[in-house]
Every structure is written in C-alpha cells, then in structure tokens.
Specification:
CATH superfamily of the largest domain: GntR ligand-binding domain-like
CATH architecture of the largest domain: Up-down Bundle
Number of domains: 2
Shape: globular
Strand content: 5-15%
Number of helices: 11
Helix content: over 70%
CATH topology of the largest domain: Four Helix Bundle (Hemerythrin (Met), subunit A)
Structural class: mainly alpha
Number of strands: 5
Radius of gyration: 19 Å
CATH class of the largest domain: Mainly Alpha
Largest sheet: 3 strands, antiparallel
Amino acid sequence: MRDDSREAGVATTEITEERYAIDRRDLSDQIYQVMKREILSGRLVPGDRLSLEEFAQRFGVSVTPVRDALRLLAADGLVELLSRRGAFVTRPSWEDIEEVYQAREILECAAVDAVIQEGPSAIRELRDQVERMAATNVGESHSDYPTYIRLDQRLHQFVVDCMGNRKLSEMYADLRGHTLVARALYSASDQRASTTLVEHRDIVSALERGDADAARDSVRVHLRNARAEILEQISAELAAEASGREEK
C-alpha cells in the first residue's frame, strides 16, 4: 500500500522549492510545468486527486491559475476533470495503451520512406537526438526522466513530421498526452534505458542505410516492447489493488 503521507511530503517539498522561482507574470503556465514534472517523475501517480485548494496553498496563489494549469494538463491528457468530483491524474486503461501504440506504429511506419527521402540532414537530426537521450542514461534508469521523455517525444514527432502532412502530424501530437501519462507508470528503477537506446540506434541506423523495411521492423520492435512494458506495469498495479481489497 502506498504511503500517502510520505509521498505528499515529497511532493510538498518539491513544489515549495519551485514556488520561489515562479514568475508572477505567467502563473498558470509555470504551475502547469511544475505539476507536469510531478506527474512525469511519478511523484503524482495515476488516480491521485489534485486539490485546487491544496495546490493553491503550496504555490501561494489563488485557485484561478491552478485551475488554468489543470485545464492545460487535461489538454495534454495527463489529467481528467470530472464533474462534481474534481481533477485526477489520468489512469490509462489497457485498451487505451493498446490503441495508442497501435496508432503510433501505423503512423511511424508510414513515415519511414519520408525520413529516408529527407536525406542526411534528417538522419543527423535523429542521430543527435538519440545521443542527447543517451546522455541521460544511468544504468537502466535516467538522471532526468522528464527531460528524457521530452527528447524521446521530439524524436518520434520529428519522424512523423517528415511526411509533411499537417493533419497526420496533429493526429500524432494528439497521442502525446496518452503516451506521456503511460510513461509515468514506469518505476524510477526500471526504465529500460539501455534496451531503449539500442532500439533507437537500430531505427536510425536502418534509416541511414536507406533500408526502409529494416527501419519499419525496428520501429515495430521498439513500440511493441514499450507497450508490453507499460501493460505489464498496469497488470501488476491491478493485481496489487485486487490483493489489497481481498486483505480488507
């Protein structure tokens, strides 16, 4: 069972530290950034309730910028706003993950030929992005997981953007929030860092060779492994919750 008081203490400490750096000219956006980091770092976990009053007190502001920040998080898919119940960190279902990763696989595989046609400049951009991600690796984890996630998203979005189709790019970007909150399910000690790095490098190497079939195969391997890891985590959490209910 999670120690809510301990986690609340950690979150309070982190937010209090951020509080003094907030620029009063744009409270909503900066509170949004802090809360987003809290979700992606795992300090706020799927299903946690986000109290307007509690966060307003922690930031030393009125509830208005906190409410605006929650709306931005909801637009990212990181938060659910439920009528008469409040705001909660999104808890993705098994079906959500299956559908999101299936859609990602279709779009990214479709983009492979476009990346190859873009030529060396596109490949260099992808290679540089992968190496920036590699710099965050510490064993099977990352020194700065939110930064790693941001770089990872940028890499995959770049692949789809190479198609030059605004509608498809927007469609892919819409999947971002679902993927973000799913990634937050990873434990801090097991983020597949070394395996994921190999998978990313395999994709870029195949693109660099101009081998579209190998690149698509590498994309599928990477996305299916990521999906399997997340589904395993969801299954473990559901089993733990069921066990807890039985004990009661």
